[in-house]
Write a structure and sequence with these properties.
The chain is α/β, with parallel strands linked by helices. Among the domains are: 67 residues, no CATH class; 84 residues, no CATH class; 294 residues, Metallo-beta-lactamase, Chain A (4-Layer Sandwich). The protein has 16 helices and 32 strands.
Length: 707
């Protein structure tokens, strides 16, 4: 990543995009055997968009290897080796002209902060660079994160490692900054607090990486930057892997650039830029690091130019020597030790191979350098794209006959357009309820936002009445289950949950699920070994045994961790078998999807409701019904005294009943009638969650669409 001692001019230069010159030394790791060195003798013509180099084993070019004499400009594991004790320099000629134009505009707009600390300088640097990118390139840049100083935390190795386990690119609908506060990141060295935070994040569907394998001096998550504690002071860290410069007196400036790099991550789209994952199908970690470092160097170049008294006009002049001065004096981050595993040489610039690739992509588009290539400009715009906010959530409540069956997708969705990303789709949950008063079931279908398999949960499945009624209801429920995804020739149910020991909760299940693949069955109430009959013959315990069903333990309550993850949704058991009632126990469930909370009360008694309310309103668990949630929907047949016990009844106000009726009976009734109600977390605000209730010939929407 730098040049060898026998190079014919500046021995520390790196010329991304322009290419290596004769005399550059390539090395293959830290092997002591000189046979692994290669000396550039001649730069060949471009081949398939890449520049190749003819090399030799000796500086004079006499010992040419029979194989491997031609090396591509970006081939690993060959990389530059700087002169011992020197740091690689990104020479002025390596920056394209449009880069200089952006930095010059930023320097012209820079206003020295009244308090010249590193965070104040970075804040101003980000402001003017973003403004210059918008003016010069026509790119809509994000606003600067306010109060950046509050979003810096210093951690030990353990705490920083825990932070880096949080995956930067999360599934659509998950925004880390909604779930994690800077103070929680700052407490990651504390084992208990770290464990509690991880449990909370896992409950919210956050995905994690394996522990990092190599030391890393910093990381950015949830718009917050964490640095290794040893970097904080004026002296370089003790551990060489965390050192950022070979020149001890430049440590503070090197740390400032590290902050610029990590805060650029924090300003990128969704905090993960172009890293694959979520709704992004292009890019990758290396591409993302290229744009992150490129933009961070713009910020550092701007601040350094102002510190050295260089003007915008100085930087606009290609031949005046001021560009060379800036390039030689600016302090980025370098590797301070060699590492064969990480393909790095002592003194080499960090992320320089990423920068080569980025500028090289530019040169394949326009060798004059006045404008970036169309591809680079599009990717830069995507990297800096402003967040659109959390995805909207839609709940469809379908009462009665849903009409013609539509089979859910079991395969993957369409591939996103090449060179772009999939348009974000709303998070969606379909809830199917019976259209009569004597049948009990809730079928939940959760389409995958990325086009994958639709997830499904059947909660209960039974009815009251005689054989004739059962036959009719069995036919209707089986027709509804024809909407389930098909895999291997069979319909798939991810979860079946029986919420009560009452026969009307389960006596249709063996018949309606016949021939289906059921991934998991759980039940509340005294059904173990039960001889309760089911329609079609037999007893429920036989079906439970054949299905590998598991009983919920007595007094189960897990509002702080998901019982099951269903694509973008999470299923929780708020309480199961919490108090004896006429059925011997019941289960209260909740589904969290985006900002929607769907609570299924089943036959909850007032005693069970009080227990669930107490558990859900503790300091640790109150968040499940608070921000970022904005609507809670309740459905079920709770005891007439249970409704007043729920945590959502205060302080948000009384539930707002959805005016649903069927068979002449209001669904908002009590005393055995089904209850369906929607509750806003913040009354008066317009939620991002839409609840639509579909009945025959009627669709009701809450909240009402704005006129």
């Amino acid at each position: 990543m730098g040049n060898g001692a026998f190079a014919d001019d500046d021995a520390r230069s790196s010329r991304p995009g322009i290419g290596r010159k004769k005399g550059d030394v390539l090395d293959r790791g830290t092997f002591p055997d000189p046979k692994f060195k290669r000396y550039v003798q001649e730069a060949s013509t471009f081949s398939e968009g890449k520049q190749n180099y003819k090399t030799s084993k000796d500086p004079q070019g006499k010992d040419v290897p029979k194989f491997g004499s031609t090396v591509s400009w970006d081939t690993k594991p060959y990389w530059y080796v700087p002169v011992d004790g020197q740091e690689e320099v990104w020479v002025a000629e390596g920056r394209p002209e449009w880069y200089w134009s952006v930095v010059a505009q930023a320097v012209a707009g820079y206003r020295k902060p009244s308090t010249p600390d590193e965070v104040a300088m970075l804040t101003e640097g980000f402001r003017v660079v973003f403004a210059a990118c918008s003016n010069s390139l026509g790119i809509t840049a994000p606003a600067v994160i306010p109060d950046m100083a509050r979003r810096i935390r210093y951690l030990g190795e353990t705490g920083l490692g825990r932070l880096l386990e949080i995956r930067p690119a999360q599934p659509a609908g998950i925004r880390l900054e909604d779930l994690v506060k800077p103070e929680e990141i700052g407490a990651l060295d504390d084992e208990k607090k770290a464990k509690d935070l991880r449990s909370k994040l896992e409950a919210g569907g956050v995905q994690f990486n394996p522990p990092p394998g190599t030391p890393n001096p910093a990381g950015s998550r949830a718009r917050t930057v964490a640095l290794i504690e040893d970097i904080r002071g004026d002296d370089p860290p003790t551990k060489v892997e965390y050192q950022l410069t070979l020149r001890a007196n430049n440590h503070a400036k090197a740390r400032r650039h590290l902050l610029a790099h990590e805060f650029m991550h924090a300003h990128s789209r969704r905090g993960s830029g172009l890293q694959r994952g979520g709704d992004l199908t292009v890019g990758g970690d290396q591409v993302d690091e290229a744009y992150t470092e490129f933009l961070a160097r713009m910020v550092t170049d701007t601040i350094t130019a102002v510190e050295r008294g260089l003007s915008a006009d100085d930087l606009k002049e290609p031949k005046g020597g001021k560009r060379k001065e800036l390039a030689e004096q600016v302090q980025y981050n370098v590797f301070c030790c060699e590492s064969r595993e990480a393909d790095q040489a002592k003194g080499a610039l960090r992320y320089q191979s990423n920068i080569w690739a980025l500028v090289k992509a530019f040169f394949t588009g326009d060798k004059s350098g006045s404008q970036p290539s169309a591809l680079l400009k599009a990717e830069l715009a995507l990297y800096l794209e402003r967040d659109a906010g959390p995805l909207p959530t839609e709940l469809d409540v379908v009462v009665g006959d849903p009409g013609v069956a539509r089979t859910a997708r079991a395969d993957g969705g369409e591939e996103a357009p090449r060179g772009g990303r999939a348009e974000p789709k709303p998070l969606r949950l379909e809830l199917y309820l019976p259209g009569d008063h004597d049948t009990d079931y809730h079928l939940l279908l959760i389409p995958d936002t990325a086009g994958g398999r639709t997830r499904s949960v059947l909660i209960d499945g039974g009815c009251s009445g005689g054989p004739a009624t059962a036959k009719t209801q069995q036919k209707r429920l089986r027709a509804l289950l024809d909407r389930l995804p098909v895999s291997g020739g069979s319909r798939v149910l991810d979860q079946v949950i029986i919420t009560s020991g009452a026969a009307r909760r389960f006596n249709l299940l063996p018949a309606v699920t016949k021939g289906m693949k059921i991934q998991s069955v759980h039940y509340a109430g005294p059904l173990t070994g039960s001889k309760a009959p089911v329609h079609g013959g037999g007893v429920i315990s036989t079906w439970l045994t054949a299905s590998g069903a598991c009983a919920f333990p007595a007094g189960l309550s897990q509002p702080d961790q998901p019982f099951a993850v269903l694509g973008p949704a999470a299923l929780y058991v708020l309480g199961a078998n919490l108090g004896a009632d006429s059925t011997g126990g019941s289960a209260v469930l909740m589904v969290a999807l985006g900002r929607l909370r769907l609570v299924l009360t089943s036959d909850a008694s007032a005693a069970a409701a009080r227990t669930v309310a107490a558990l859900c309103t503790t300091t640790a668990n109150a968040r499940i019904f608070g921000s970022p949630a904005d609507i809670t929907v309740i459905t079920g047949r709770p005891d007439r005294h249970a409704a007043g016990q729920w945590p959502w009844s205060a302080p948000a106000g009384n539930p707002i009943p959805l005016p649903l009726t069927h068979a002449g009976r209001p669904l908002g009734g009590v005393g055995g009638a089904r209850r369906v109600a929607a509750v806003p977390v913040a009354p008066g605000s317009l939620p991002r969650t839409t609840v639509r209730a579909r009945l025959a010939g009627t669709t009701l929407t809450f909240p009402e669409p704005p006129s």
